[in-house]
Write a structure and sequence with these properties.
Strand order of the largest sheet: 1-2-3-4-5-6-7-8
Number of strands: 8
Oligomer: single chain
Low-confidence stretches: none
Distance between the termini: 51 Å
Shape: globular
Number of helices: 12
Length: 256
């Protein structure tokens, strides 16, 4: 199955986060065998040029790329789509109306309001634009992040939106939206998360989570909640932990 089919069938899929500029990171992750690579434009200084390099690096390994775009940024969203990404993630969704507006940016008429201008998405005209304007552009995955209480409360309506492939829980921001930032497994936050999971599962749509946690206990907890798409870890954290371990070895074991 390709990435879209895995998402639509609710398969367990594993991804990791790219926050740094160097596309060699994406190439390495791709060769390791992740199901997809999440490139973040919301919280990083990755430019559009950097993004394109990450996409090209991922393609050399055959690994799908999903991109989290900045909040409510039509221009960045359009430019990301024209690169031919495998999936797009819209953060900080408020409610179903907000989600519908953002999803419309990714869909050509009569499905939505996306402006014509595919570039990399149709190999600069080598592939058929006519086919892409029809069924072709629907092959990309579309996700929204549930990280606001208002979105969780409206999860049933959000989950019913056509061409939306799933939601991705942002447990930290979700906890912040109820005044309990960082207490991600508190009862109130879990109630909102489970409400979202139930709604999307009822519509046979994928439920994901984005977490920098990499410990088995936390990840197993997410799995047991019914989450089937886990984006875990981050490039900079892998570097820090590896560098710390080496330094610790040199100082405390080698006693250098």
């Amino acid at each position: 199955m390709n990435f879209k089919e895995k998402v639509q069938n609710g398969c367990n899929i594993i991804g990791t986060h790219v926050n740094l500029i160097d596309a060699n990171i994406t190439e390495i992750f791709g060769k390791l065998g992740y199901d997809y690579i999440w490139v973040d434009l919301e919280h990083t200084r990755i430019s559009m040029d950097n993004l394109y390099e990450h996409i090209l690096a991922a393609r050399t390994t055959g690994t799908p790329v999903i991109v989290r775009v900045p909040v409510n940024d039509l221009t960045v969203t359009k430019r990301t789509l024209e690169m031919g990404v495998d999936g797009i993630v819209f953060p900080m969704i408020r409610d179903a109306k907000h989600a519908e507006e953002l999803l419309s940016w990714t869909l050509y008429p009569p499905y939505g309001t996306r402006g014509c201008g595919p570039k990399g998405a149709v190999s600069y005209g080598i592939d058929s634009e006519k086919e892409y304007y029809g069924e072709g552009h629907l092959k990309m995955c579309r996700f929204v992040q549930i990280e606001q209480k208002s979105a969780a409360d409206d999860a049933e309506n959000i989950a019913s939106i056509p061409y939306l492939d799933g939601c991705i829980l942002g447990m930290h921001d979700l906890s912040g939206s109820i005044g309990k930032l960082g207490d991600i497994f508190c009862e109130d936050n879990l109630e909102l998360a489970n409400k979202s999971i139930k709604a999307f599962k009822a519509h046979n749509k994928t439920v994901g989570v984005s977490t920098f946690a990499t410990d088995a206990e936390t990840l197993m907890r997410y799995k047991d909640m019914g989450i089937n798409m886990i984006s875990t870890g981050a490039d900079y954290d892998y570097v820090i932990r590896g560098a710390k371990a080496t330094l610790n070895t040199m100082k405390n074991e080698v006693r250098f």
